[in-house]
């Protein structure tokens, strides 16, 4: 049955409209979770507010379990789901630069739009920075291209690397997440902050 | 009027369901930085079409039959702005402000927000997606890239937190 648009059960003309509707849900949840606040996001890295950990991992686990169940029920063909390809070197270096941007700027791209949507000027300035950063990458691309394309491993999954089923990987992630949630709750008690 | 934030575990489940719907309808996950790229590419293509046609980077997205603005993520991010606004209206959080730790000035906050944005924008292109597109969506589809992005982003932010602590605590 699913995914509906790649299987042409819903016409491709609808794809961008669906993207817009899904975006409304995404933006609404991000803002309700408090991801429009850089101080709430940064709290993750000082232990006073671990909402990032809780929302991020609960979200990932919910979607993982959803895909597993949908597949089991015959509702979705997992072979038609896009899996982002792995280029190990650029993924690590890109991630390191993004991590620096996160703690310096207090947002990631999605959360900065959520902040800008409710009038946060710091979110808007962060978005301005995003455009400049992407522009630097585009103009510097000839210098970076070799590194960017190196170490291609294709759309490889963790389950394939470890040689275990997707269900077992999901179970291990759930166990790891439950331990981290507990640590997060302890950190919030250890380094409390007044409301901000 | 409700002003407090949603329970984080409930918000996480809802976020996961939104992501699941993206997979179920469109066969792909959520994202954010890709929309910035599309808008930037479209703008540069208007200003300097010869430059974009000759560039290895821009020519992937512009040229015959390619419309950078008709991208899934561009429409999704327009939705994010609407959804965020609705949530802010619903919870009484709509107002113009520069949010910052009381120990620093608003100007310092904006300078660091801009610098962070530049870093994140550059890194998201090198890393083929940001926290939403590579880390969250990648993890949900069990992709190795998703887990590598997640660990690199959060690991680095933890490692550097000490050096910018005066901005936050």
The whole-number mean of residue pLDDT values of chain A reads 96
Low-confidence stretches of chain A: none
Which strands sit side by side, in order, in the main sheet of chain A?
1-2
- Largest β-sheet summary of chain B: none
Q: What share of residues of chain B is helical?
A: 55-70%
- Calculate the terminal CA-CA distance of chain B, rounded to whole Å: 30 Å
- Whole-Å distance between the termini of chain A? 46 Å
Number of helices of chain A: 8
User: Shape of chain B, please?
Assistant: globular
- Structural category of chain B is mainly alpha
Structural class label of chain A: mainly alpha
Q: Largest interface, by Cβ-Cβ below 8 angstroms: which chains and how many residues each? A: A-B, 129 and 121 residues
Description:
The complex is a heterodimer of chains A (196) and B (169). Chain A is mostly helical. Helix content of chain A is 67%, strand content 3%. Chain A has a two-stranded antiparallel ribbon with strand order 1-2. The longest helix of chain A has 29 residues. The N and C termini of chain A lie far apart (46 Å). The model of chain A has no long low-confidence stretch (mean pLDDT 96). Chain B has a domain of 68 residues. By secondary structure, chain B is mostly helical. Chain B has 7 helices and no strands. The chains are: A mainly alpha (196), B mainly alpha (169). At the A-B interface, helix 1, helix 2, helix 3, strand 1 and helix 4 of A face helix 1, helix 2, helix 4, helix 5 and helix 6 of B.
